[in-house]
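Please annotate this fold before class:
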Amino acid sequence: MTTKTWMVQIRLDEEADTTAAEAVLDTDGKTEVRGRGRSRRNPADPAIPMIGDELAAARALSDLAHNLLEAAAHDIESSTHKPAELQL
């Protein structure tokens, strides 16, 4: 059995009522896959920065998952020379 550990780092940048997040997956130094997400506070909502962080990070992780799935499909197609249709 082989065990691998992949690390994801999430960077959050806050400016006024907007939070931007970037999630970066490092696959043992071989590949980097990135995802991005944003959140914007509705002016009628109370200012709770953690909620904006959570939303932006969740969206970045969702985008990262989509991009990782696309990378896997590309790798399958390169290996098999047949179309791959993967679903999240």
Q: What stands out?
A: The longest strand covers residues 7-15.
